[in-house]
Write a structure and sequence with these properties.
Two copies of one chain form a homodimer. By secondary structure, the first copy, chain A, is an alpha/beta fold. Chain A is 30% helix and 24% strand. In chain A, strand 20, helix 11 and strand 21 form a beta-alpha-beta unit. The longest helix of chain A is centred in the last third of the chain and has 24 residues. The radius of gyration of chain A is 26 Å and the shape is elongated. The mean pLDDT of chain A is 93. Chains A and B meet through helix 1 and helix 2 of A and helix 1 and helix 2 of B.
Amino acid sequence: MAGWVRYISIAPPNLQNNTADADRLIGELKTQLNTDAIDIDLYLLKRLPDLLRRCKYNVNCILFKDRERWLVTGVAHPQDINPIYGLAVDLGTTRIVLRLIDLSTGRITAETSSDNPQIPVGPDILARIHFADQDGGLNRLNRMIIDGLNQMIIRLCDSCKAEPYNIYSLSVAGNTAMTHFFMSLNPRWMIREPYIPVINRPGLIKAEELGIRVNPAARVLIFPSVGSYFGGDLIAGILFSGLNKAEDTAILVDVGTNAEVVIGNRDWLVACAGAAGPALECGATKIGMMAGPGVIDQVVIDHDTYNIRWHTIDNMPPKGICGSGLIDLASHLFLCGMIDIKGKLVPSVCGSRLNEKDGIRHLVGVPAEDSATGSALTISQADIDSLIRSKAAMYAILETITSSVGISFKDLSTFYVAGTFGSFINPRSAISIGMLPDLPIDRYKSLGNSSIGGTTMALTSSKCLDEIDGIRGRVTYLELNVNQEFMNRFSAAMFLPHTDPLLFRSVKVRTSRNPQ
Amino acid sequence: MAGWVRYISIAPPNLQNNTADADRLIGELKTQLNTDAIDIDLYLLKRLPDLLRRCKYNVNCILFKDRERWLVTGVAHPQDINPIYGLAVDLGTTRIVLRLIDLSTGRITAETSSDNPQIPVGPDILARIHFADQDGGLNRLNRMIIDGLNQMIIRLCDSCKAEPYNIYSLSVAGNTAMTHFFMSLNPRWMIREPYIPVINRPGLIKAEELGIRVNPAARVLIFPSVGSYFGGDLIAGILFSGLNKAEDTAILVDVGTNAEVVIGNRDWLVACAGAAGPALECGATKIGMMAGPGVIDQVVIDHDTYNIRWHTIDNMPPKGICGSGLIDLASHLFLCGMIDIKGKLVPSVCGSRLNEKDGIRHLVGVPAEDSATGSALTISQADIDSLIRSKAAMYAILETITSSVGISFKDLSTFYVAGTFGSFINPRSAISIGMLPDLPIDRYKSLGNSSIGGTTMALTSSKCLDEIDGIRGRVTYLELNVNQEFMNRFSAAMFLPHTDPLLFRSVKVRTSRNPQ
């Protein structure tokens, strides 16, 4: 097995074989791992002679790897009842997700998530990058994330009676800016031409040096980034999807404020990222919000009665709508003719559901009497316009990257959709509004949070770690210059589902009829 | 050149080449150094973007190396007037020696030495090893050496207007126990059969992790040891002597309480160590002391008048005698017949210079009126007996190691004598008493403090660093079991110069004549 915990049995020392304790352990590991480069942490070294003798020279070694070099971070008694843990961390701009992994079995012991503690400084990453450049700003952002993580680690461990001391390895993925904040590196040059990060491949760093309070010998693997706009979270996503190992070409889309796309197979990988606008994450709509109890995540409209039915998370009274719900809503509004191909609300169809505020049309989605807020939940023409811009950008990006590699959508074996929000998108709805291409539904696969998925994999096998560098090295990043061709694609996609209906043959709009 | 400071010029970033700052620097270094493995310290990384821009992408990189992996610990402006320093450290049981090296030129900027601050715990290493095993003992010994080093570093830097912050690399050599104290590793198993150190090859450790206050990114190279009785100081000595690169076979002897011997050439190296007793370092004689002002370091006896003439360090009135003076004295006493071939004082020759205290004969070396102490400086029969045991042990060790490799003394191209004290031995005198073999005087080469010599070399060239591991890997350690053969050799060497006069043909003892 290729896990990080290896059982090692060494002969007790004698006068004929009296090399040092550490060197004997390393010698045996070198044979087992078939390598020449193994280091041992100083903190562990201080405890090693007693540990070896207490275990009668039969021990579980806890390993990690920094490119070609292995590192021993811990040694445990094979009968120790305390599990040996690793911690997978998804450093999202919005949410931080932590998973405690039992390194011996690779199983997930516990999981927790929390809002990114930097949100008060700025919900979007750009505001934080500017803040970091002010006096003491970087240090404050770094303390927020490190202190926040330390608190989350204590809570996570408490939830399963684990000890932070028993965490020996961490794997962390985030976008390039979050990775910089995590290491206390100033990302100022990332947002100035020619957009330079401080480092793309940080490798393994001592947890203590980063201020993370776990075992003092623990190391942190930080997922490498490709550049300022293609971070370690996406490398983790590729690893999780297996895109890099498949014979057939597939595509991976991480849907968020930025649409991050990777296309490829085991031979090549091409990536690009582009601003899709905040609408897909509901940042722009008045009633839009992150998924949570009472948030509408699914919408269906009865095409006969125009009745809007909704599903909320935890079945609580509705208080807002999240991205997947919004796409469902827009899709059904379009399919039953309540909005036209330009996305404009059609008064003759919407009827009494429509009202006007400050000269802007609003459609009542949830009447006041059903809403958790006591007021009606409405979606405005501006909200719909914003969503259409976002979906058009997404489709234009997908067209650009596929055409740049000479692949048509139908050649894609699988269309992975990732992201905390993206995973909940109903592909049928996304196709109906022309956000995702018109492929058979079974080609779409939801990956969930692929970033935490990838960081988890890195803690289950040393082979995955080798893969990470392989992925990073093979990604060709396509700079998505907003050129005339892209603008043409974008404009063509500003219609529902598209100016070219032949691209979306499966989308059948209900022919207009009398309003209810 | 193979030094640790390399001038690197990288193209400023542009949209076509917008990889990260660190990766661009590392990429250029990889080309220059022809390697794939280069890391950069996190502390430096935080400052790198500003440094690169301030230097317009033309910088001096400060490097160090951990086996196959290079590490960037600093980046400096090529016109910076502050030198880039390295610090060579000889961690002697008795004396600590520090040298500040200009890493750009390889030149020695300043040097200082100080008593080992652990001496109050115990002058010999064994006492300290026992002390380390008591509650809090190891920590106290570690603090003594680390605090002591930090104070010495400040003094050393003050003496030449340098800043500890500008020290980027350290190379440290000591015996295996001192190396353990330095790293806060408990050497308890080194003195219990089968004599196991914690680690022989510690590699590169962060100075900060060891508590050394220099540049926060600085790394410490700790010279590897072969085992409990053959430490990094001797590896440094071999490096300094060049024994490992010569075609002809040579021998290196580090004279101290332990006699540590290495024989070999560029193809093989065989080492052994054995207790020579404290007499050679003057630990056993009443008037013996470490070299210092007023200490007799050279002695001549007029063979006609039996007048004893002495030279003291700094020409101060004599207050004691050091090892080299003692060997001179014994040699002349023997050559002019004042002691016999068993080392016994001959009353008929010594005459009035002899007196008796507590039934033991004493020879007055310095009369009270000439001495700095106001009392006569005398050497007792017991002192001479102790010296003879030490010289016999030394000769038996030399015979054992040469015969074990099938080499006779006359085949040795060079006989290196090292050690703070050993370097001052007059080989003629050492031959006369049968401590060193009867070789032409020009075969003897005094190396001075070869440990600080070797650590200095490690800071001047990356090639030397590769050599260290090569030396360590090639040393075969010969366990000097005190067997019957060794005891026979020891007994035969208990005479002056030896029971077999044919081994010391050059030694001509004055035939007895009437006393003065």
